Amino acid sequence: MTDTLPRTETAVLDHWVGGAPWAGTSERTGQVFNPALGTVQKEVRFASREDVGQVVDAASAAWLQWRDASIAKRQAVLFAFRELLNARKEELAEILTAEHGKVLSDARGEIARGMEVVEFACGVGHLTKGAYSENVSTDIDVYTLRQPLGVVGIISPFNFPAMVPLWFFSIALAAGNAVVLKPSEKDPTAANWLAGLLTEAGLPDGVFNVVHGDKEAVDALLEHPDVRAISFVGSTPIAKYVYETATANGKRVQALGGAKNHMLVLPDADLDLAADAAVNAGFGSAGERCMAISVVLAVDSVADEFVAKVAERMGGLKVGDGTRGCDMGPLITGQHRDKVTSYIDVAGTDGASVVVDGRDVEIDGDENGFWLGPTLIDNVPTSSTVYTDEIFGPVLSVVRVEGYEEGLGIINASRYGNGTAIFTNDGGAARRFQREATVGMIGINVPIPVPVAYHSFGGWKASLFGDAKAYGPHGFEFFTAEKAITSRWLDPSHGGINLGFPQHD
Ligand code: NAD
User: Fold this and answer.
1) How many whole angstroms from 238 Cα to the centroid of ligand 1?
2) Burial of 382 (0-12, 13-18, 19+ CB in 10 A)
3) What's the CATH code, domain 261-444?
4) What angle do helix axes 215-223 and 236-248 make, rounded to 10 degrees?
5) 276 CA to centre of ligand 1 in angstroms
6) Atom 39 in ligand 1: which residue has the minimum CA distance?
7) pLDDT means per 10 residues in the chain (505 residues)?
8) Whose CA is closest to 244, among 233, 255, 235, 234?
């Protein structure tokens, strides 16, 4: 490691401002756990409103230079960053596993999906091109161009400590903005590591900053007059709050919220492939993914067979320390594990049956880790909180339906609309589904339909507040403001007085 990167023995993680760690003035800190051990491994600073103000000032000053950096210069920094990230991704994967708990292979996958957006952002030259119309009126041309916004705030969740920041800051920086990232306080080290790497890649100091903290830091960003835009990812209640507060403060906002993703299994589906998909998408990253499948809608005629196939596969999953080649790691905190477990506790009372109980799982890891094994709950009534709440853990519910219509009705009645999938061999049913489901991202025999970097990512309904999705074309639109210029180069024939509204001739 170079000395720009935070050392792992650091007891208190600082903010990152102006190209270097910064302690700030606040005395408040939070604890960062190692979820596989159940121990506190470091503390992280919690910024005060004044601290955030200083960080925004640093970013504002740096932006005055960065906004004038040529496209070629910005691309060069991003290319260099991509190369460094690719060369050193294993270090980052280890940080993710140590603080989030996800298994190493999954941490590598997270980095790959984030790096994809860095590669996309390198195309900034093409993606921010304007349009030109010559001679719209005699000797008058109209053209548009896209300019950076200024300082933008990114507030990210615990479940993707590298990928989600990469989705947003790569495009924000490419477009010429300065960034203040407020990562999750639960696994904050990845943000500083990425900041160090951006510095090494040649990004001028102050253009990318990290401020750690909780609600106080978030509120300070939402209300700061020099922060032009907010990209938020997290749970729905906070997304709604962020959207309402930041728009009330005149900011451009995209706030991605929670999810409850359904997978509809029709009788003609390949049940083995569908069962593989349900297990992978239900229990990968211990179900702590906004695109996890949390409900399978199984058509009655095949439901028994499907549930048996899923349960059989779950028996083969190894739960334990993410560094030991297991399939699934711990949950993020003991408190979250207990909350997820409480849903298994009420399932029976609500009339559902627990087919595989994660409370009994055998662990390959320290007994104090925040463990809960994969859990399968069948016959879940849609009135149960097991169905209605976003559980965000390794709990897969099965709701039995009569057929396509009932399944679609349940999906469309959900308050969330992030992702959904249909498993079928009937092209007509799949085509109807893609047209009729009121959900932002659809999978056809694909359980986690996260679009590639050059298409945008985002849900509908309570899964996204605002108009712009993440990355892809939406990303560049969000992080730039369009300007239209009407131009005429004068010659003597253009003289004369005319108070009428401009018309074209
Ligand atoms: P969270 O809402 O608790 O936290 C997200 C961010 O908001 C964090 O940086 C946190 O510090 C901050 N925050 C928390 N409470 C706050 C408050 N009262 N006021 C202001 N800021 C506050 O979410 P989480 O638990 O970190 O992440 C999991 C959630 O994120 C799930 O609901 C998941 O579905 C969602 N998520 C959604 C997407 C998506 O693309 N739609 C992607 C990833 C995660």
Assistant:
1) 7
2) middle
3) 3.40.309.10
4) 30
5) 29
6) 256
7) 41 97 97 97 97 98 98 98 98 98 98 98 97 96 98 99 98 99 98 98 98 98 98 98 98 98 98 98 98 98 98 98 97 98 97 97 97 98 98 98 98 98 98 98 98 98 98 98 96 85 83
8) 255
Q: Which of 172, 290, 296, 408 is catalytic?
A: 290
Active site residue 326: no
- pTM (two decimals): 0.97
Domain boundaries, the chain: 12-257+463-485, 261-444
Pairing of strands 416-417, 178-182: unpaired
Please name the residue ranges forming H helices in 101-185.
104-121, 124-127, 163-174
Nearest CA to ligand 1 atom 31: 235
Please state the atom number of ligand 1 nearest to the C-alpha of residue 457: 40
Strands (DSSP E) found in 157-267: 178-182, 208-210, 227-233, 252-256, 261-265
Candidates 3.40.605.10, 3.40.50.300, 3.40.190.10, 3.40.630.30; CATH matching 12-257+463-485: 3.40.605.10
Pairing of strands 39-45, 29-34: antiparallel
Spacing, Cα 324 to ligand 1 middle (Å): 28
